[in-house]
Structure formats: structure tokens, C-alpha cells
User: What shape does this take?
Amino acid sequence: MLFNRNLSEVYSGLIVIYGLYKIFASKNRDGSAHIFAAYSMGIEVLFRMNSGGLGYEWGKYAAVLLLMAGFLVEKMKKETPVIYLMFLALLIPSIFVIDYPTFDRSRQMVSFNLSGPITLAVSTIYFYRRKMTPPQLRKLLLSMLYPIAAMSVFIYFRAGDLETVEFTTESNFQASGGFGPNQVSTIFGLGILIIAIAHFQSIRLFKLKFVNIILLFAFLIRGLATFSRGGMLAPLLAIFLCIIIMTFLDANFKTKLNKVVFAFMFVFIIGILGFNYVNDVSEGLLEMRFKGESMYNKEKSNIFSGRDEIFAEDIEIFENNVLVGVGPGMSMEKRAEISGVETAAHIEYSRLLAEHGVFGIIAILIIVIFPVKYFIKTKSVDNRIMLILCITFVFFTMGHAAMRTAAPGFIYGMAFINIIRRRE
Assistant: This one.
């Protein structure tokens, strides 16, 4: 099924159909909506790799549909963050200024560029203050982790052993199974984040502890081999910031500190071993990649992989279209007019500015300020940990991979889960 496009298309349809059946049959009392949505998000890039799934944006559509169905049919009453409906409304005006040659092209570009923010809003509305016990959270985490593990197996069989890969100082399509290294690295980074969340929340994912270590090492090795740095840096930054912020701001965190610091040191050691292994296999090119050096031009810095130029071009587009921007996806064509090169969006923040103008500024403020207010408001150590880990990962990912996958939007919503311990 992993390698067969037709079978994966059928499988993607069955995921949604069976998910909807479970949601309506149980009235979402068992959390079927977020379980199937999480699985859809986790398997999205794997489907893209073999051109399977019901369309390129299937992962986002499936997650949104399943979460909306669960939210609408369940009888549980909880607070709804209405401001995220406003967030969605802010993205509508720019649709009316798009200028594509055909309706089909317009539909595709609007869908591709708005499906990510829609996933974020729907996920937040669904997960906000949703009560979950550690066993329920474990089930959610595993629903994402299993397809990521399957993706690592798929890449191993498609790309082969790393010794057979031809490395340069650029992102490596061969090592990522012939698909976009940026997306593959991001999903492997998500796998590392999931394992970190489980450890911070004292959740045992597997009966055998070494399974965590094997998966962690596999995600790290294959993620580093893509030479796409952002996906690997995002979870490490999230772990580091969580320890620092919680240590200084929350006295109750000290009860977990020794265990967490030990885990961080363990991950750090695994990271060093993994980095050295891939660096040796690539004959030192991985180190050059992380330093921003090029094997072709040692005088030229490649630390941002051209994202600084994309950011500058987006700002120029924004300055010329301040009110409503140029419309979803139109920034790519405008960048081509400026630089002569048609490049896709990599930075969600500057994309929102270029394509949505002033409304984009307000949208950015919403997704940044709301989590800060939530952090201040909540006093739960578990909830604060969840927020920092998820939001840091999302904000960093949106800075290097925009919202090409469903992962940033879905994980953003997960940040607001209300974790309930039985003793409470």
C-alpha cells in the first residue's frame, strides 16, 4: 500500500469515510474526530510522496472535515474562541483581487494558500480547552506517530542506505525519497516533538522504552539526511525554550526539572551521534550545510537558503498593496516580476502580509497574541508545557516551511488542549 498509488488513494478515502462513521456513531464521545484527523495529518506527506491520497491538499481537507464533524455532533459544551472565526474572515477580502488566467488556476491557488490557515482556525476551535487525560493524549500522539514511522520505512526502501546517496550542500531529494526535503524534514521533526511531548507529560508511548529511542534516532538520521535544517531545529528549539521558560516562570515545574533536563541531555547526545554519523557519510557536507556554506561557492553564505530574499520581496509586495494585498498565491507571480524567479512562499508571516495586506497584519497578531494571553491565564504546568512545545514548533515551522502541510495548523490547535490528571 505504501508504494501503490491506487491503493493509497482508496485508503485515503476509507480513512475519511470510516472516521466520519465513527464520529457520528459515537457522537465523538471517544474523540474519533481528533484521532482520525491526527492520523490524516501524520500520513499526509507519505501520500504526497507516492502521489496517492485524494488530491495534494487531502491532508488538510480531511483534518478540517473530521474536526468540524466532531465539533458539530458532540454534546459537550465548552468555550469557543470566536476570534479565530474573525481570523478566517480576515482572509476573505483578498480573494476578490486575485488575477489568474483561468478559474481552475484561481481555485487551486486559493485552496493551496488558504487551506493551511483554515486548518489552524478549525483545529484551534476544536481543541481549545478540550479536556484530555494522559491516556487520551497518548492515543492522539500515537495516531500521528504511526504514519510518521511508516514514512521513515517508505524512505528507507525508496532512497536506500545513506552510503548510496549523493550529497551536496543543498537540500537532498534523493535522501528524502524523491520528494520535497523541506516537508519530509518537517514531519520527521514533528515525530521528535511528539516523543518530547510524551516525555514532558510523563506519558509512556510504548511498553518497551527502547522503541522511543529507535524512532527518535530514525527520525533524526533521516531528517538530517534531507539537509533541510528547519525541520530538525524546530523540535530542539521547542524543547530548549520549554525548559528555560518553565524553569524561570513556573515554580511548580521544578518537580519535573531533573527528569526533563536528563531527557534533554539524552536527546542532545542522540543528536550529536546522529549528526556526526550523517556528517561522516556526507564527508563533512552536513556541517557545511548547517554553517550556511556552499561547496560550489565558499564565498557566498547560504544560511537562509534564499529565504531572506523571499522575505524582502514579500515586504516590497506588501508596501505596494497595503490594504488587501495581492491575493492568495499571487505573491509567487509578483516575486517573479521582481526577481525573475517564480518561487513558492516559504515564510508564512511575510506571505500573509504580501497576499492579505493590513488584514494579514491583524491575522498575524491574532495567532501570536492569543497563545501569549492563554499562557498567562492558565496556571496548569501541563498546559503551559503543551503550549510552549507546540507553539514554538509551529512558529519556527511557519518561518521556514510556511503552511505547506497540515502539521503547523493542527499542532497549533493542539497547544490549547486542557490536560486533566486523575488526581485532580
